[in-house]
Amino acid sequence: MKRVAVFCGSSEGSDPIYMEQARKLGALLADKGIGLVYGGAQVGCMGAVADACLEAGGEVIGVIPEKLMNVEIAHSGLTEQHIVKTMHERKAMMADLSDAFIALPGGAGTLEEWFEVFTWSQLGYHHKPCSFLNVNNFYDPLLQMLEHTIEQGFMRPAYQELIITENSAEELLEKLHQFQPLELSKWGN
Ligand code: AMP
Q1: Which Pfam families does the record associate with it (predicted)?
Q2: How far is the CA of 109 from the centre of ligand 1 (A)?
């Protein structure tokens, strides 16, 4: 695992634990020699994960659309910052550059990014692990919704194995290392 994409809030969240754990993950990635790919912003948890990774000597690659450079305040101290035209290009480049995906707590943008890579995984467009770092049990309601989706017959139970969830960053990285892709695709071939 050379590089991991981290999706997370452009906000700080209401509890200091969100920024703390974003920093912790950034520093841990640097310690493990794993590069960070993220949305290139200086704000909120996004800025926290990037700053901590850089401070610990890690590689940080940002991918930011030009329209958002001012709003999200493009980070100027990254190893590499890619400025792209659209949100679609941003997500595609982040996915291409990464070997695994982690969502920290965040808003609709974070969820959208995570669900896109997860649905690509279900469809067999890639075989990279998709995970939640479940800080403060933030993702419990979403995990319940996914269980409900399975119970109601809208998602195969096997796809639950594609979703890795951990409360500790150390254990999450370990699980990402051990991940084995499923053999079946959404349409059973
Ligand atoms: P949020 O979780 O809403 O704070 O957003 C986190 C990051 O996701 C920000 O950098 C947003 O610009 C980004 N984002 C929001 N919507 C999208 C989208 N449709 N495609 C790509 N990135 C997005």
Answers
A1: Lysine_decarbox
A2: 3
